[in-house]
Amino acid sequence: MAVPKRKMSRSNTRHRRSQWKATAPQLVTCANPACRAKHLPHRACPDCGQYGPRGEQRQVI
Amino acid sequence: MPTPTKGPRLGGSPAHQRLILANLATSLFEHGRITTTEAKAKRLRPYAESLITRAKVDTVANRRQVVKVIRDKEILHVLFTEIAPKYTTRPGGYTRITKIGPRKGDNAPMAVIELVEEKDFSVTTKTPKKKAAKTEAAPVAESADEVKDQIAAADEAETETTTDEAVVEAPADEAAAETTEGDADKA
């Protein structure tokens, strides 16, 4: 069985972990004039529960 | 070789997958709209729509085919007497998937799959437009021909020459094709 030959230094560990980065998702404004919340594109708005183009929203949730 | 199923596999075994899809379809026909994961919704859509297509023609044979999946007699009755008659003129596309945000517990992408509303898709609404467009275009062309008879005659002469050229070209192509085939045979 393969085993590590050397101890992984604190520097190497921290260097590797410093590359774990989160990116902010691209958000869109809700088409519902009464809501205008930010939500993920191509998804129903979690605040008002509506989905669809401006003027043709459907209540999904 | 059997064609693999489009989309992800569900459950741990083929039997489990069949049961998941059957239960999802039963729930969809019972409630009209269900919330599930995107993967399951995408697998369910063609499965449920084929059942509805079968239920459009109410025969004993079709009922026996559908009852293999929808084992609940009440829901089977609703499917054949209420859901399928709504879509008699609709050529497929009986369900709609709307994505909603990720689930709280495991961040799984969720979706709502629902039966679409009733709408008339009878064929008479489409054909008149095409016919009207053709009839409008045809008279204009005819009048133009009447005015320019001489020019048309000249055009015909030209077209004859071009057709002759085409005839000459076509055998050449065939000969070329034959030579290539012959080369292929030699190779």
From TrEMBL, chain A:
Domain of life assignment: Bacteria
Keywords, comma-separated and alphabetical: Ribonucleoprotein, Ribosomal protein
Basic residues: compositionally biased ranges: 1-19
Gene Ontology biological process terms from the UniProt entry: translation
One MF term in the entry's GO annotations: structural constituent of ribosome
One GO location term (cellular component): large ribosomal subunit
Region (Disordered) location: 1-23
SUPFAM superfamilies referenced in this protein's UniProt entry, alphabetically: Zn-binding ribosomal proteins (SSF57829)
Family to which the UniProt record says this protein belongs: Belongs to the bacterial ribosomal protein bL32 family.
Annotated protein name in UniProt: Large ribosomal subunit protein bL32
Lineage: Bacteria, Bacillati, Actinomycetota, Actinomycetes, Propionibacteriales
Automatic annotation (TrEMBL), chain B:
Keyword set, alphabetical order: Ribonucleoprotein, Ribosomal protein
Subunit record text: Part of the 50S ribosomal subunit. Contacts protein L32.
PROSITE patterns: RIBOSOMAL_L17 (PS01167)
GO cellular component: cytosolic large ribosomal subunit
Family membership noted in the UniProt record: Belongs to the bacterial ribosomal protein bL17 family.
Pfam name, any one: Ribosomal_L17
Name of encoding gene: rplQ
SUPFAM superfamilies, per database record: Prokaryotic ribosomal protein L17
Any one Gene Ontology molecular-function term assigned to this protein's record: structural constituent of ribosome
Residues covered by region (Disordered): 125-187
Ribosomal protein found in the keyword field: yes
Acidic residues bias (residue ranges): 155-187
One GO-annotated biological process of the protein: translation
Organism (species): Mumia zhuanghuii
Protein name: Large ribosomal subunit protein bL17
